[in-house]
Design a protein that fits this description.
about 325 residues, alpha/beta, Helicase, Ruva Protein, domain 3, Zinc Finger, Delta Prime, domain 3, 3 domains, five-stranded parallel beta sheet, two-stranded parallel ribbon, elongated
Length: about 325
Amino acid sequence: MLKGVRHHDVAMSELWVEKHRPRSVSEIRGQPAVVQRLTIYAEKKQFPHLLFAGPPGTGKTTAAMALTKDVFGDNFRENLLEMNASDERKLESIRTKVKQFARTSPYGGAAFKIIFLDEADALTNDAQGALRRIMEQYAETCRFILSCNYSSKIIEPIQSRCAVFRFRPLADSDVHQQVHHVAAIEEINLDDDAAEALTRISQGDLRKALTALQVSAALSNDVTRELIYETSATAPPESLHQYLKACRDDGFHSARRRLRELLDKYGLAGTDFVNQLHRELYSADFLSEESKLDLTEWMAEVDYRLVEGGGEQIQLDALTARLVTHLKQ
């Protein structure tokens, strides 16, 4: 979305996040419980080992970098080792790179260094076993910040050494406000319906919303609701409702034709379609409660078959056939 590089083959949304992400813990929005605790650490410039856990796009990396800047100031990188554990997930990386950094003295009279391990749930169990000893051995001169999507994949000895912070999906109001803020900075014309669409497809993931905005803005400076759905591989709610109504009222061939139109127009994979249909199922007021329960069970079965390698077209046709059979009763 940065105008000078809009057509470059780079992840422009990541560039925007890096440029405009909060510089201090006090600037973070959308995670009040987390910010309240981190603000105390930022003021004292002291904290224990930390574990940030939560869905993607909710601010874990931003919080880690903001806290580091509050503690060390502008020269924070002199005492920071930032690693993506999904790239360096083996035992050897922990024994060499991490241990070598942890054992050296902090630079510039700082009280300690910080090692930030992003996506720490990708570390192997052997690597985590080695890490827990390093965390204990160098606790006086080094603090660890680990971020992960699933804290259950972090072994208990590491969790017990950390203060755990749970990040929640961002509220719709926060995502809506932020996409309008980004659009204003980048001079993009974003109408309210388009902002609502971005909020809907993000499901609390701000990174996903910004990426969808970036892709749409690369095609047109006037971002509309239709453009958002067409470029984000997401079908609008009314199209999915029309498919369900076609299953109920028009029969198999008409419903199957509408299904193919949906897949082709919005570029949906089979699993995408099933997941999006499941999300919209509960807002379909023309279906009975019993029908919604049966359809949920059938969608789960089709989704499992698709994930296990079942043929996409025949599985979706089978789902359509069962929908038509049930809804016509």
